[in-house]
Design goal:
The protein has three helices and four strands, in the order ααββββα. By secondary structure, it is α+β, with helices and mostly antiparallel strands. It has two domains: 16-118, Beta-Lactamase, CATH 3.30.450.20; 131-176, no CATH class. The model has no long low-confidence stretch (mean pLDDT 79). This is PAS domain-containing protein.
């Protein structure tokens, strides 16, 4: 989806599945057309808020058919930037919460908003860069040590920040101890 001048998101692209669910091509249509007439404002505000605040959201909704059948859906809205400083697009996914074998045979008339939530509860943790590994240090020793024990020892040394070279002599590329020439 993309934002418009009046903060009314519209479908920039729409996949075959969502078009089949709705029984029509929805590319170019406003996001509001998916929703029940009395609820059109809330989902539009949620989608606009995802773009404005650059925070993903999950929407729980129920889809209704003309026959009276209904199915629960989960919709994920994730913000996308079209340039480095402007977030004016969304990547969305609509998935049935439970299997509904009839879903491919009947089209949805509208979605009804059940609830929504923003996904910013956990702070983002930037991973620290890992130190460069010496690939020869990953070779297992030739003694009768089991691989699991050797891996635990290597991981514990890495967690403690100790140099792996302190525990074993360096190895050449095929895992043999270096030859000492007299």
């Amino acid at each position: 989806m993309e934002n418009t001048a009046d903060n009314n998101p519209r479908f920039r692209l729409a996949g075959t599945t969502i078009c089949n669910l709705m029984g029509r091509e929805i590319r170019g249509e406003d996001f509001a057309v998916l929703w029940a007439g009395s609820q059109r404002e809330d989902p539009v505000h949620i989608a606009a808020g995802v773009m404005r605040h650059v925070v993903p959201a999950v929407i729980r909704a129920t889809g209704y058919c003309i026959s009276g059948r209904s199915v629960a859906f989960e919709m994920m809205l994730m913000p996308l930037r079209s340039s480095s400083d402007i977030c004016d697009r969304l990547l969305g996914c609509l998935t049935p919460a439970a299997p509904a074998p009839w879903l491919g045979n009947e089209c949805l008339e509208f979605l009804a908003l059940d609830r929504s939530r923003l996904l910013y509860d956990r702070p983002v943790r930037v991973p620290e860069p890992s130190p460069q590994l010496d690939m020869t240090d990953l070779l297992a020793p030739r003694e009768n040590t089991r691989l699991g024990e050797w891996m635990r020892r290597k991981l514990n040394l890495a967690i403690l920040g100790q140099d792996a070279g302190e525990s074993e002599p360096p190895r050449d590329k095929i895992g043999l101890r270096p030859q000492v020439t007299p």
